[in-house]
Design a protein that fits this description.
single chain; 263 residues; alpha/beta; Rossmann fold; 8-stranded mixed beta sheet; 12 helices; 43% helix; 19% strand
């Protein structure tokens, strides 16, 4: 039997919404969502792993039911939110799995707070995602026009055409989640991504690391994953037949990689 708790905590003038699944005494696994999604993107992994782990997932700052905090913030705030969550739950060390923006958060944690992590999974991410100009333009767009224009093109960025055609309900649900995000919170995360560049520091990351890349990912490519692997001593690299949201498109394969690495 597993236990589920949904709760919030206050951290650095913001509110974080989180959910836990599994027994409190099991090893902790923290799951961190990508830009424009919420903690529900991890439903498959939480269901599969809650019998062996205390699974903690949360809505990143400015997403879902978590507040943005008002003032501009950087990748350090996204990382410190995780530290605050671990402190709140009285967890000294955890495994961490982040995808895309969550993967950048994981890199920052591994560089600045390695003592809080015993294993790290970086999925569909890079030490520098995109360009500052592109992120700032997107932030300006959503602040001006709302989430509609970003949501309209999301499926093609997130998933391969066969998956879009086959899993229409899943795709529609995730696009609806993106469309319903707070534009200010989303824009603030875009601005944080515009400033986030860990290329000069990622080689100092000393936590055992698994990197997962999507073979069809146009946003963070297999080459981005391979570069990370070359920088992080001892890191492993796995590629999955998926696009950018690989934990949803290739859920079983993703979970199998996660389980094999963590156990």
């Amino acid at each position: 039997m597993t236990h589920t708790v949904v709760n919030t905590l206050s951290a650095d003038a913001t509110r974080l919404h989180y959910r836990t699944d599994g027994q409190r005494g099991n090893p902790c696994l923290v799951l961190s969502n990508s830009l424009g999604t919420d903690l529900s993107m991890w439903d498959a992994q939480a269901a599969a792993l809650a019998s062996r782990f205390f699974v903690v997932r949360y809505d990143a700052r400015g997403h879902g039911q978590s507040a943005g905090g008002g003032a501009p913030f950087g990748i350090d705030k996204l990382g410190l939110d995780v530290v605050a969550l671990l402190d709140h739950l009285e967890i000294a060390r955890a495994a961490f799995c982040g995808i895309s923006m969550g993967g950048l958060t994981g890199q920052w944690l591994g560089i600045h707070h390695p003592q809080r992590l015993h294993k790290l999974v970086l999925a569909n991410t890079a030490a520098r995602i995109g360009t500052a100009d592109a992120w700032l333009a997107r932030a300006q767009q959503v602040r001006r026009d709302g989430m509609g224009a970003v949501a309209d093109g999301a499926a093609a960025r997130w998933f391969t055409p066969p998956f879009i055609g086959r899993e229409t309900d899943t795709v529609a649900r995730m696009v609806a989640t993106l469309r319903g995000q707070d534009a200010g919170g989303y824009a603030a995360c875009c601005e944080a991504l515009a400033r986030a560049d860990l290329r000069a520091a990622v080689a100092t990351l000393g936590v055992p690391t698994l990197i997962i890349a999507g073979e069809h990912d146009p946003v963070t490519t297999v080459d981005d994953g391979r570069w990370l692997q070359q920088q992080v001593a001892g890191a492993r690299l796995a590629s999955l037949p998926a696009s950018h949201i690989s934990n949803v498109e290739a859920a079983d394969l993703f979970t199998a990689q996660l389980r094999a690495f963590l156990l």
